[in-house]
Design brief:
single chain; mainly alpha; two-stranded antiparallel ribbon; 2 strands; about 5% strand
């Protein structure tokens, strides 16, 4: 997404916005993250300078088309019709109160004129709110109903992705199988569209893999995984940010299904060419650990920790290191590193992320460990 923002022609919006980028890991940003419920990266907000209320909010990577549509909502915000006001209210609620957001998106759709320009956006956001609220069946069935007549563009792909995640989040059932039968052809359409951003392609392949594994079809899961890895390997990264994004996709692919040894060479090369990037070390550590190469995983964690990560990434690296030490039977070292991870977790700026990590690590510290 940084590449898009760096190279996109946004001259038409000059003087209409004040741009602000905040790091998720920095303590000084905690108040903002808490106030606006930024629990995922990337998250984009349009704020009204008069009262600092949210005009629009969207999570996840956007295409240039989506970005300009997002900014256009800010430009038009001063003369909002009832449907647009309901849409803005729903966006404000989405991160922290997805059930209420879903109701607000429905209000927007009911209040809207037949040819309301934001209709498909509101429909896609409704599906996202249902996913965030874990209303799996309603989410999947709404995605099927809303995506079918949509224009085949980025909003269509986003709607299909949310519906697929809802199917992937449950065990096989008649409703899930029925929704999958209708969504799967739409995933093929989305993958064939040049406008489908890489994050959405990644989500489609991963959900197809996870659903296949859940239905004991590991051959299909391996096929989807191999296809996506081949696409990723064919891309020449033009920046460190793009290289990191490719590596994240590789790791998430293998975590769905596959052999971590297949991607370790690419991850090791990334760490070599990005010697100051702690995330590159973290990805190597993840896959070395998954491959049961415990000493190599610990060494990668130590390299990452030496590269000044933020609190969240520091806690993550320490958890990977602790897991490798535990697998090696080094109980005392394992508990010591867990205590370090707990300290790092308590410094995470985002309250939701912080509380989740602190609770998880405290639970791990209470669990008995066998001394060897």
């Amino acid at each position: 997404m940084r590449d898009l923002l760096a190279h996109a022609d946004l001259a038409g919006y000059a003087g209409q916005f004040v741009w602000l980028e905040l790091s998720y890991d920095e303590e000084g940003n905690r108040a903002f993250l808490t106030k606006y419920g930024a629990n995922a990266t990337p998250t984009f907000f349009l704020l009204d300078p008069r009262d600092q209320n949210v005009i629009a909010m969207q999570t996840g990577v956007m295409s240039l088309q989506e970005l300009t549509q997002f900014l256009d909502r800010g430009v038009a915000a001063r003369a909002q019709a009832p449907a647009d006001a309901a849409l803005s209210r729903a966006d404000t609620l989405l991160a922290e109160h997805p059930a209420d957001a879903a109701k607000a998106y429905q209000e927007a759709l009911k209040a809207a004129a037949a040819h309301w320009p934001q209709r498909e956006l509101a429909e896609a956001s409704l599906v996202q709110a249902l996913q965030n609220n874990h209303q799996w069946q309603r989410c999947a069935e709404t995605a099927v109903a809303e995506a079918a007549p949509m224009k085949r563009d980025v909003i269509f792909a986003r709607t299909v992705v949310a519906g697929m995640w809802c199917v992937a989040s449950v065990d096989p059932s008649p409703w899930a199988d029925a929704a999958l039968a209708k969504l799967k052809p739409m995933t093929e359409e989305a993958l064939a569209m040049p406008t489908t951003v890489r994050d959405h392609r990644d989500a489609i392949y991963r959900t197809l893999m996870l659903i296949s594994v859940n239905r004991n079809d590991t051959s299909a899961a391996a096929g989807y995984g191999d296809h996506w890895l081949a696409e990723l390997d064919a891309i020449t990264p033009h920046s460190d940010d793009e290289r990191s994004a490719l590596d994240i996709a590789r790791v998430e692919n293998i975590q769905a299904y596959g052999d971590p040894k297949h991607i370790l060479p690419a991850l090791i090369e990334s760490e070599r060419v990005m010697p100051n990037n702690y995330i590159a070390s973290l990805r190597v550590a993840q896959m070395e650990s998954a491959a049961k190469n415990h000493d190599a995983a610990i060494a990668a964690c130590d390299r990452g920790l030496a590269r000044n990560p933020g609190a969240g990434s520091r806690a993550w690296l320490l958890l990977i290191k602790a897991g490798a030490l535990k697998d090696e039977g080094k109980t005392a070292e394992y508990r010591h590193v867990l205590e370090e991870a707990l300290g790092a977790a308590r410094e995470i700026p985002s309250p939701g992320h912080r509380d989740m990590n602190v609770s998880m690590i405290q639970k791990m510290l209470k669990e008995p460990t066998d001394k060897k």
